[in-house]
Specification:
By secondary structure, this protein is mostly beta strands. The protein has 1 helix and 6 strands, in the order ββββββα. It has 2 domains: about 1-75, no CATH class; about 80-110, no CATH class.
């Protein structure tokens, strides 16, 4: 599970999601929302939302609304190895220019 909040810190049902979610925690990359109209699939970055397990709504102990959407993979934050603050939450240009400074693991490569 990935803990994320929108800019206004409001629980969002799928029908209310915009094109991007940002975290309140500094340095966390945005979560991009992609809708595939031909298949009705919705992705959070590269994680597919399980449409059978979406929009679970509850109130937390503080009485605030919470919404849970189950996804098919873990979302990993983009974290620079050096810890330089100017590399946190990069835009696409900065990420590509400095890709060797990030912990990119698995089969993914930036060339």
């Amino acid at each position: 599970m990935y803990d994320f909040e929108s800019k206004v810190n409001v629980a969002k049902r799928l029908s209310d999601l915009e094109d991007v979610l940002t975290s309140e925690l500094p340095g966390n990359s945005p979560i991009w929302i992609t809708r595939k109209p031909d298949t009705n699939e919705i992705y959070l970055n590269d994680a597919l939302i399980d449409m059978r397990r979406k929009d679970f709504s509850v109130k937390n102990l503080a009485g605030r609304d919470q919404v849970l959407h189950v996804i098919d993979r873990v979302l990993d934050p983009t974290v620079p190895e050096s810890g330089q603050s100017n590399l946190l939450n990069p835009d696409a240009k900065r990420f590509l220019e400095s890709s060797a400074l990030y912990k990119i693991t698995g089969v993914h490569r930036v060339t």
